[in-house]
Amino acid sequence: MKTLATLLVPLALIATCAGCVARRHAPPPDLNAAARTPEDADRLFGERLNAGDIDGVVALYEPTATLVRQDRTAAIGTAAIREEIAAAVAARTQVRMGVFHVLLGGDDLAVLYNDWHAIGTDRDGRHVVLNGHASEVVRRQHDGTWRFVVDDPDARSVACEPHPQHHQPAKAPCKARKGHPCAHKAHAGAHRKATK
């Protein structure tokens, strides 16, 4: 009996440690991977943004794609989208994507419904918590990969008053937010809370 116990205890410890090592040293996400499914577009967006890979995020958009800013204006084309993504990276944004429904429109179009959560820093260096309810249109490309056509991070969030300089009709203000609605443009959700 002692011999059996002598063999089993070390084997159990080895198995446990092997599991810990595998979890601790899991391979990093492949930031060069292509979006092979509609959901991959959001997954890769999150992985690349969290890694600070601006080029990798922008590569997920069609050249004439639209990214809707928090103030409801549009960043159209990859040059404008790059500015928004760069601002999010500069704010050290870390996002968790939560695609919960994909609506297919034939073989080449899909709408993603994504409830996302992020943390970052505002212009004063304070931590902020960001949440949004996105609707995104993705299209299958000629090579079979998927890219964003329209990305609206707050499409299903509480409508917020636009910036006055944009001369758009006012909507109901977002009561959950403090400060100006343009304070953090790129993927800054409808609900924001400063944390210490």
Keywords:
alpha+beta, Nuclear Transport Factor 2, Chain: A, disordered C terminus, disordered N terminus, 8-stranded mixed β-sheet, 196 residues
SSE layout and pairing:
Elements: H1 2-24, H2 38-50, H3 54-58, E1 61-68, E2 74-76, H4 78-90, E3 94-96, E4 99-105, E5 109-121, E6 127-140, E7 146-152, E8 191-195
Q: Which consecutive residue ranges, at least 5 long each, have pLDDT under 50?
A: 3-26, 161-196
Number of alpha- plus pi-helical segments? 4
What is the second-level CATH architecture?
Answer: Roll
| N/C terminus separation | 57 Å
Supply the helix-strand structural class: alpha+beta
CA radius of gyration is 21 Å
For the biggest sheet, the summary is:
8 strands, mixed
- Overall, the morphology is globular
- Within the CATH hierarchy, at the fold level, what is the topology? Nuclear Transport Factor 2, Chain: A
Q: What's the order of the H and E elements?
A: HHHEEHEEEEEE
Percent of sequence in beta strands:
25-35%
Q: What's the mean pLDDT score? A: 77
Number of strands: 8
Q: How many structural domains?
A: 1
Proportion of helical residues: 25-40%
CATH top level assignment: Alpha Beta
